[in-house]
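Re: the 149-residue chain
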Amino acid sequence: MKLKLAREAHRLYAKHSLSIEALLALKKEQKHQGVSMVIEMLTDLVLHGQASRHLVKMKGRSIWDLKSTTRGGQRGGSRVYLFMLPTGEAGIVTCEVKENDEPDPALLVLVLKAIKAFKAGIPIFKQPPHGTDKAASSSEPQPPDRADR
C-alpha cells in the first residue's frame, strides 16, 4: 500500500508533513522506542495493506489507526492516525506515543479536519517545492491546487 503524508490545510508549504513533525517531536522527547514502533507499523502497512496486523478502523468514524496494542501487542504505546483514500492509498495524518490506550481527542479532530480538507479538494498530500517554508507559520489558507488531491 502506498502512503501519502498530510499537511494541515492552512500550512500546505510547511517544511514537514504532520506525521514527520510528530515523529520529530517524539524524538526530541526521547521516545525512541515509540518512534521505532511507528516506523515498524508503517512498514507493515506498506507491505500488507489493509491486512496489516496493526490496522484498526475506529468505530463510527472514517478514521483508521495503526496500534501497537492490536492483536497481542503491548498496551498503550504507539498509534498512527490515517484515513483511506479512494485510490486505495493511506492518508497518514499524525501519530502519538503514550501510556494509556485512549486516542488523544485533539489528534482525532486533526484527522477529521484533514479528511474534510481532502474532500474539499485542498491538496493536503502535495509536496511543496524543496527549500520552501513560506507560510509554514502562517494561519492563512493557501490557494488550492486541485491537480493533486
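The radius of gyration is 15 Å.
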